[in-house]
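Entry 14. Ran structure prediction on the chain below.
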Amino acid sequence: MGIILIICQILLVITSILLIGTVLLHKGRGGGLSDMFGGGISSTMGSSGVAERNLNRITVGVALTWFVVIVLIGLITKFTA
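Output, structure tokens:
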């Protein structure tokens, strides 16, 4: 069980970094934190609808993977203790 726990923890770190990255890549809707850091300038350029939809799918996939890994870590630690 120790090796599975280590693999899950490594996967958790990787998916956490990917989730932060994919959320930050989304187009800002205006008036929020993204405008404070210059997101308002890049949001006027706009991105294509296909790219935004693909980014949404990738973000949801990474978030689901992140959630499953957290549940697995919880189950592993509960049943090995």
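The longest helix spans residues 49-80. Will compare against last week's run tomorrow.
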